[in-house]
Amino acid sequence: MDSKEIMEAFDQYVVNTGSRFPVIYDHAEGATVWDKNGDKYIDMASGYGANSLGYGDEEWLHAVIEQLKKFQHTSNLYYHEIGAVVAEKLAKRSGMKKVFFSNSGGEANEAAYKIARKYGNTIADVHKNSILYMQTSFHGRTISETASTGSYPGMEAKFGPLTPGFFPVLINDVDDLRKQVAEHNPCAIIMELVQGEGGVIALDKEFVDTAVKLCRDNDILLIDDEVQAGIGRTGTFFTYEQYGFTPDIVSFAKGIGGGLPIGGVLTNEKTCNVLSAGEHGSTFGMNPAACAGANVVLDRMDDTFLQDVREKADYLRSELLAIDEVESLSGLGMMIGVNFKTRDYAQVVQELCAHGVLTITTHGRLRLLPPLTITKEEIDEALAVFHKLLD
Ligand SMILES: Cc1ncc(COP(=O)(O)O)c(C=O)c1O
Predict the structure, then answer these.
(1) Can you tell me the distance from the alpha carbon of 33 to that of 108, in angstroms, rounded to the nearest whole number?
(2) E strands within 45-159?
(3) Is the beta carbon of 226 within 6 A of some atom in ligand 1?
(4) Which of 33, 53, 81, 272 could disulfide-pair with 41, CB 3.0 to 4.6 Å?
């Protein structure tokens, strides 16, 4: 099929749930992608942050292929070594107790909600099951996540009735947080420490500290959605390390698989035994091939790797700020929101794509989520295009 035929087949046979850039992947290496026409792109989006080690990482490929040669899938009826290895590494690395594996971030947050609801309904001293979420959040696409996602308003009218019992809080508004806790007596609060879809906004430390204290004082579970911000993206393995607390539940996905579908929730002492056999599950969860990829990602993300991520993020940020048209940057580490002084961000994203740099939008600004292994040379190539378009 040529490029035109591929795009036509998508139009004809694929349900349209999002607009695609006119880039037809052919092959890729590092942070560089070549399309069917032989045109080259620097990838500053990495499949919404999932390709954390870029494309074609040899160790990752080898591990996944070797696992596939042994067996590709078991379901949760049986044990396998690579699952045990990854679960142990994740628990030890995060300071959490146990992990439930899913295939995606959405599935991870559903697991978090079920743990929170069961905890509130059957374990907490006071019976409770409402959940607070941040007004500009994004937690996924299921009916419960749509009910707790503020960054895509107007969904109740289209997909309602959404799951009841979810209530919004204004981000970084300590008074509203206290008010909603008092009003709704929640079993859990879910937050992204750096909101991805909501504009790449890092929550204020004071707001997070208040949420942590309210949760501790009132037996409320704090769910930290690190599906986008976790696994090295913000310069530490999990972003909560930078805020100085440990959540009750952490959801993760995207970067952990290096491009294969795997996610999950990490649970602490309080939450690790809430679910019992038969109450939750996922046919493909803990898929051995995805675990083999995750194992390489986990081993790679040592202190040296994360230091390198932080240095490259600092470099990219300072070079972006040196562009006159750039008004300000948001986010943390390699999760970067870019505000322009006069240019329309959505238009800039299209122009960058046409000139060989893949970026994405977020609420109100341009978003960069490059592979964490992007080289300085690749960053410079992308920056040269930013200059060409914006100077
Ligand atoms: C913070 C956050 N949570 C959850 C999700 C949902 O993840 P998935 O698309 O893997 O279901 C996303 C996806 O962008 C996300 O950014």
Answers:
(1) 29
(2) 98-102, 131-134
(3) no
(4) 33
Residue 263 alpha carbon, nearest atom of ligand 1: 10
Rounded to two decimals, the pTM is 0.98
Q: Is 138 in the pocket of ligand 1 (CB under 6 A)?
A: yes
Q: Per-residue pLDDT tens for 197-219? A: 999 999 999 999 999 999 999 99
pLDDT (average), residues 116-120: 98
CA-based max dimension of the chain: 63
Region(s) of the chain under CATH 3.90.1150.10: 3-57+303-390
State the span(s) of the chain assigned CATH 3.40.640.10: 71-300
> Sorting pLDDT into bands at 50, 70 and 90, what band is 18?
confident
CATH annotation of 3-57+303-390: 3.90.1150.10
From the list 159, 161, 185, 181, the residue with the least C-alpha distance to 170 is 181
**Mutation test of ligand 1: which of 228, 240, 260 has the most ligand atoms closer than 8 Å to its C-beta?**
228
**Pairing relationship of beta strands 335-340 and 357-358 according to DSSP bridges:** unpaired
CA distance 4 to 110: 38
Among 3.30.479.30, 2.20.70.10, 3.10.50.30, 3.40.640.10, name the CATH number for the domain at 71-300: 3.40.640.10
Q: Are 131 and 186 in contact (CB under 8 A)?
A: yes
Beta carbon of 50 within 6 Å of any ligand 1 atom: no
CA 262 to ligand 1 centroid distance, Å: 12
Confidence of residue 311 (pLDDT cuts 50, 70, 90): very high
Segment 340-364 mean pLDDT: 98
